[in-house]
């Protein structure tokens, strides 16, 4: 799902140089690109579930203003994946409701 040949921006020259773990699945990534871009390129569209009705949510504004793309990243809930860059080895999970803190305080 990546745009490899763009008529204005040209050809994609970045290389896959990282791996993230999403809900236990290894996903190849480009370090530094937004987490949401990596997920979409892997065909993942559901990032979280709403607290009350457990409805799926994914990317909406893509500029960090809303919270539809939040996920738990390295044990920290409510991370906006559209503006958070990929780092090799990140562990990411679909967030349920408000998320649970699993990292260090």
Write up what this structure looks like.
It is built from 1 helix and 10 strands; from the N terminus they run ββββαββββββ. By secondary structure, the protein is mostly beta strands. It is globular.
Low-pLDDT stretches are none
Give the beta-strand count. Answer: 10
CATH class: Alpha Beta
- Secondary structural class: mainly beta
Average of the residue pLDDT scores:
92
- Report how far apart the termini are: 36 Å
Count of folded domains: 1
In summary, what is this structure?
Helix content is 7%, strand content 30%. The protein is mainly beta.
Helix and strand topology:
Blueprint: E1 5-6, E2 10-11, E3 18-22, E4 25-29, H1 35-41, E5 48-49, E6 56-57, E7 70-73, E8 76-80, E9 91-93, E10 95-96
Parallel strand pairs: 3-9, 5-10
Antiparallel strand pairs: 1-2, 3-4, 5-6, 7-8, 7-9
Features:
105 residues; mainly beta; Ubiquitin-like (UB roll); three-stranded mixed sheet; 1 helix; globular
């Amino acid at each position: 799902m990546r745009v490899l040949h763009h008529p204005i921006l040209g050809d994609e020259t970045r290389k896959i140089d990282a791996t993230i773990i999403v809900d236990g699945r290894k996903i190849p990534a480009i370090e530094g690109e937004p987490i949401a871009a990596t997920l979409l390129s892997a065909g993942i569209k559901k990032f979280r579930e709403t607290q009350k009705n457990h409805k799926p949510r994914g990317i909406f504004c893509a500029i960090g203003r809303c919270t539809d793309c939040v996920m738990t990243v390295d044990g920290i809930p409510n991370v906006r994946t559209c503006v958070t860059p990929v780092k090799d080895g990140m562990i990411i999970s679909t967030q349920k409701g408000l998320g649970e803190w699993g990292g260090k305080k």
